[in-house]
Amino acid sequence: MSNPSQGALAKLTPVLTKRWLSPDAWKIGVYERLDGYTALRKAFAAHPDELIQLIKDSGLRGRGGAGFPTGMKWGFIPQNDGKPHYLVVNADEGEPGTCKDLPLMMADPHSLVEGIIIAAYAIRANFAAIYIRGEAMHAARRLRNAVDEAYRRGYLGRNILGSGFDLDLVVHSGAGAYICGEETALLDSLEGYRGQPRLKPPFPATHGLYASPTVVNNVETICSVPYIVLGGAAWWKTMGTEKSPGPKIYSISGRVNNPGQYECSLGVTLRELLDLAGGMQDGHSLRFWTPGGSSTPLLTAEHLDVPMDFESMAAAGTMLGTTAVQIFSDQDCPVYATYRWIEFYHHESCGKCTPCREGNYWMARVLRRILSGAGTHEDLDTLLDACDNLLGRSFCALGDGATSPVTSSLKYFKQDYLDYIEGRKAPMFGAGELVGAH
Amino acid sequence: MSDIFTEETRERARAIMARYPAGRERSALLPMLHLVQSVEGYVSPEGMAFCAEMLGITKAQVAAVATFYTMYKRRPVGDWLVSVCTNTMCGVLGGDKAYQALSEHLGVGHDETTEDGRITLEHAECLAACDYAPVMTVNYEFFDKIDADQALGIVKQLENGERPQPTRGPRLCTFKEAELQLAGWSEDRDGAVGEGPAGEPTLAGSRLAERFGVSVPGFDPNTPIARRDDKGAGPGNSVPPAAPKPASDGKPAGDAPTVGKESK
Which A residues 4-43 touch B at CB under 8 Å? Predict the structure, then answer.
């Protein structure tokens, strides 16, 4: 294995992943020996408003995809309003390609628990919930164990460490619905309803869980908090870019030699990430990739040197998303990849909004027809027309996200579609499998 | 009400309800449906009636929820629920072939159970393990980096009454036992939470940093937290928060993956 270049290695920022190599760091005793729960003690010595200001000063942006400034989100919670406040952690990791939160909760669950206590103290919440996707049973097991340990040591419950602050924390397993990763659908699900998004406004900051002020943050966002409390905002900003500060866990999957989790300074490029991941596999050359999951428009080899931060990705016509970097090669078909993703959105659409429910249903069928060799040129217009009717016309981002693979693959790989339509490429499905496509 | 649901199950249902703030017991519905599956292996009409009775809501309200979520099964599931990820990344790297091989071997399709009632097959959407692709799970325990032959081997072990060792989990438990965990009961089997070190993909970046001595300089855990201007301001005297931005500006206040309209 050849070594990565010095330039690429310099982009590594082991912060949230620092404890991952320590055996049994998921146990509370080991975590405490590795500076665990020191940030909590430091935070309790500060005023909650000072913690909100600290997070604002750090420039921390949400790690769940949208990149909303975390400190500002916390600051939106009205204080002295006489209502209970809630903190909900979004651990419903399911955006195709995304696989950072599960390993984080497996290796270092107490960093999440500690971050939750600090965040709840800052926004004055006495009840917090971790909504973890149901299928992630192994990670939920670690979390439940960590929460039990934290209660036994007095980090949760009444009068935590003599601070006068009370907090109860529940680990709540979902039941298999991608849509519950959308924060308002998650809240409905947590309240015991179908996981369907709510129209915003009102926002969760004022009408969230049980119609009370609520902060919903991603796992990686909350796990960042203890490090900012310890190292300070200025130190945090030594990593990343001016508008996208800090470290970020990039998840690389697909046709590379060493897929996995690489925590890097925000703004690392794909060229550097590929270098860290041991390069492309033999016989494969980069053809297309997602910067942050299937809901972020595809990029190609011409984007190898675009910094992967929120602004630069937007300027390149895509999004940073969840930094779920899926690498596909010349041996992978962008039309099939798009079809498979649209099948996913079709399956996961909650059915509330007509454009998303019907649009994905029909797009999946049109794509299948194209892959079966029975597509027409008009089908391509139909796909784009469906995307026009989807984008911005549904309550939540699932509908918007579904258009990303379709419009971006048509932008970069229209010839692949035409090859199926004009018979230059062998059909991927037989006509017999085409029931309902026409 | 049938007596499938014993006093022990009712006690557990009440314990689930007690986890949530007073008056918000309906939050217990999702875990309670997992509890029902831990008893019956699926959500039956009796199971829905049980939840409705415990929570004081209607059976229709429970049914609306039970039919929404993929993990609530409407027909009895076998002891072993075999889920193969066939989302794009796993599918391209071999998940599609693995699913095909299992479907042919077992003679069942998606969401179907073998005639002896022991194994249920399904294809799953992204299981958040793309760095271990292709993956499959048995009762939600992961088997990483599988190919069609390995998938067949795992299922044949199940058919022989053996319990294959998951890549990152403890010894397999049955579907009903797994559902009790999902209802929120901690795993108390010896070593079940330990389950060994993380796999190489999880640690790939950390190992590079260790090998080449990369760390982030300037970290001082005693860095002071800036104090507020001291004028005796309590938590409530802060400036009223600005209104959250509307979603239409392309910066939703949410964490969900989204496509900002300015990027189009």
Answer: 4, 9-10, 12-15, 17-18, 20-21, 23-24, 26, 35, 38-39, 42-43
Q: Do residues B162 and B98 both lie within one domain?
A: yes
CATH number of the domain enclosing B111:
3.40.30.10
- In A, minimum Cα distance to B19 occurs at A170
The answer to whether residue A263 neighbours chain B at the CB level (below 8 Å) is yes
Query: Which amino acid belongs to residue A300?
Result: T
User: Domain range holding B28?
Assistant: 7-66
Q: pLDDT tens digits, residue range B145-173?
A: 999 999 999 999 999 999 999 998 778 99
- pLDDT tens, position by position, for chain A (438 residues)? 579 999 999 999 999 999 999 999 999 999 999 999 999 999 999 999 999 999 999 999 999 999 999 999 999 999 999 999 999 999 999 999 999 999 999 999 999 999 999 999 999 999 999 999 999 999 999 999 999 999 999 999 999 999 999 999 999 999 999 999 999 999 999 999 999 999 999 999 999 999 999 999 999 999 999 999 999 999 999 999 999 999 999 999 999 999 999 999 999 999 999 999 999 999 999 999 999 999 999 999 999 999 999 999 999 999 999 999 999 999 999 999 999 999 999 999 999 999 999 999 999 999 999 999 999 999 999 999 999 999 999 989 999 999 999 999 999 999 999 999 999 999 988 755 554 443
Q: Which positions in chain A touch B34 (Cβ < 8 Å)?
A: 134, 173, 175
**Contact present, B202 and A20 (Cβ < 8 Å):** yes
Task: Please give the full DSSP string across B170-187, using - where no structure is assigned.
Answer: SS---HHHHHHHHTTPPP
Which whole-number Å values give the CA distances from A395 to A168, A182, A285, B237, in the listed order? 32, 10, 39, 35
Dist CA A211 CA A195 (whole Å): 16
CA–CA gap between residue A389 and residue A384 (Å, rounded): 9
Rounded distance between C-alpha atoms, residue B29 and residue A381, angstroms: 44
The total number of structural domains in chain B stands at: 2
The SS3 of residue B137 is strand
Distance CA A258, CA B51 (A): 47
Catalogue all structural domains in chain A, each as residue range(s) with its CATH number: 35-236 (3.40.50.11540), 334-433 (1.20.1440.230)
pLDDT digits (tens, 9 = 90+) for A7-24: 999 999 999 999 999 999
Cβ within 8 Å, pair A20-B206: yes
| Position B42 in a domain | yes
Place of tokens 């690489």: A262
B86 with B153, same domain: the answer is yes
Strand ranges (E), A148-227: 168-173, 214-218
Assess whether B124 and B162 both reside in one domain: yes
ipTM entry: 0.95
Kindly determine whether residue B128 and residue A99, on different chains, have CB atoms separated by under 8 Å. yes
**Close Cβ partners of B213 (under 8 Å, ≥ 6 residues apart):** none
Q: Which residues 6+ apart lie within 8 Å of B119 measured at CB?
A: B78, B79, B80, B82, B106, B108, B113, B155, B158, B159
* Residue reference for tokens 């549904």: A394
Which of B66, B96, B114 terminates a domain? The answer is B66
Q: Judge residue A85's burial from the number of C-beta atoms within 10 Å of its C-beta, 0-12 exposed, 13-18 middle, 19 or more buried.
A: buried
Contacts of B35 (CB under 8 A, 6+ apart): B9, B12, B13, B16, B179, B180, B183
Residue closest to B253 by CA, chosen among A212, A283, A33, A208: A208
For residue A193 the two structure tokens come to 């309803």
What per-residue confidence (pLDDT) applies to B190?
A: 64
